[in-house]
Amino acid sequence: MASENILDDLLFNEESKQRVSIFVAFCMVLAVYHATVFWVIMDDDIAAKDTMEMFSVSFDTNTHLHEEVRTIDDGDREVLSFEVPTAMFDDHDGFGVLYININYQETSGQIGDSCDTVAADLKPNSVQADWQDERNVLSGLSTDCSTISLALTVFPEYTGNQTQVADMSAEHWASQWTNDAHGRGMFELQIEVDASQPTGSVLPTVSDDDEEVTVSWEAVFFDVVVEEIES
After folding, report:
1. Which residues on neighbouring strands pair with residue 192, listed in sequence order?
2. What is the CATH number of the domain that holds 68?
3. First and final CA of the chain: distance in angstroms?
4. pLDDT of residue 90
């Protein structure tokens, strides 16, 4: 009986009917609003994305090579310095990445003399580069005469891979990859040699007190190429 009275109040009471009408009208307005947002505003966003300009960003690379041979005494640490010629910065859009290879062989000439231990560290300094890039390899160690390979990302986020970007203009994206400040200055490579002695050798003429180390520097520069992708 109580439920019937409530229903009668809603259907036949004038004040209740007004409240119900207002509630229904509110629900209808809310539904129309959501439909408008989806079909008009969202439709405009989708249309904008469909008409948004797309660009491909690629890189033409040019490499500067430098090689240096150094004889390092047993137990010594030596610092080798390297600076890229100014012309490379003038002729290209940016300095992308620096590769360093350190090679050596056992040079004592003694039978049974194993490879020396060589350690290399590219020390972070004031040169503007992405020293914190997780892809960097700034130190290495070799005990078997294998090559030590180091790498430093100089231009932030540079990978050399082609990418696609949206919106803005070709000039904008080209400017994002044009900066001659990255990589200017002197890089410093520290090398340490721990020479091994032939097993069982007691003769003073049989000694291994230094090692010849060859360091190859490879500075990879790039010119950015931005092209609009035709839809």
Report:
1. 77, 119
2. 2.60.120.380
3. 69
4. 97
